[in-house]
Amino acid sequence: MKMLTILVAVIVLVDLADSTKKSVPAAFKAANLSKVLNITIKNLKLMTVTYPDPPKKVFLGNNLTQTDTSTEPTYDFDYRTNRYYALLMTDPDVPSPSISLPGEFFHWFVGNIPGNRSSSGEDILNYFPPVPPPGTKPHRYTFLLYRQRKKMNFSDGSLLGIDLTNRLMRRASVLAKELNLGDPIAGNFFYKGFDVPVVHGALNVV
C-alpha cells in the first residue's frame, strides 16, 4: 500500500511537471508573444520570477501592479553549473499594444549569470520599472532567458549601452542574434496597465 502511494505521488509530480512544460509555450502563443517577439517557443521552459515587496510571483500572464513591480525581482531556473546565462526583460507593446512601435523597450538586461548562482550576474541595463502610459491596454512585460556560449565581455560598451536611448526601439530577436545567444530556453511574462493613483503618487502629481 505504501509503495502504491509513493508511485501515485511520483506519477502526479511527473504529470504536473509535464503540464507546466506544456503550458509555457501555450501561454506565450496565446499571448501572441512568439510572433511579436519573433522567438521560437517550442521548447521554452518556465523561469521563476518573484517580486520581493510584497512577494508576488510572475506566472504566464497574471496581472501585476505598479507597487508589485517597483523593485528589481529575483529569478531562478534549472541552471547548469558550468554555463553562463543572459536575462532580458522587454516590453513589445510600446507605446501601446494597439499602436506599437517597430521595436521594443528593454527594461532589464543581465549577462554572465553563472550557473552555480542563479540570482547574480552583470547588470548591463539596470532594472527599469514598468510604467505604461495612461489610456493604453495592459502591456505584456516579458522575461527571456538565454544560454550564453561563453562568458562575454560587456565592459567596453560596444555590445549594449546603459542609457535610455539604448533601451527603446530594440528587438530581443536582433539582440540574441548579435550576441549569438540562440533561442531563449526559458521565459515568463505578466500584464500591467497604468495605475493612476500609484503612479501619480510616486511622481507627486495630484
Automatic annotation (TrEMBL):
- Signal peptide start and end residues: 1-19
- Keyword hit for Signal: yes
Q: Which UniProt keywords apply?
A: Signal
Protein name (record): Similar to TES-26: 26 kDa secreted antigen (Toxocara canis)
Give one Pfam family. PBP
Coiled-coil intervals, chain numbering? none
For this protein, the record's SUPFAM superfamilies field holds: PEBP-like
Top-level taxon: Eukaryota
Keyword Signal part of the UniProt annotation:
yes
Recorded hits in InterPro entries, A to Z, give: PEBP, PEBP-like_sf, PEBP_euk, Phosphatidylethanolamine-bd_CS
Family designation: Belongs to the phosphatidylethanolamine-binding protein family.
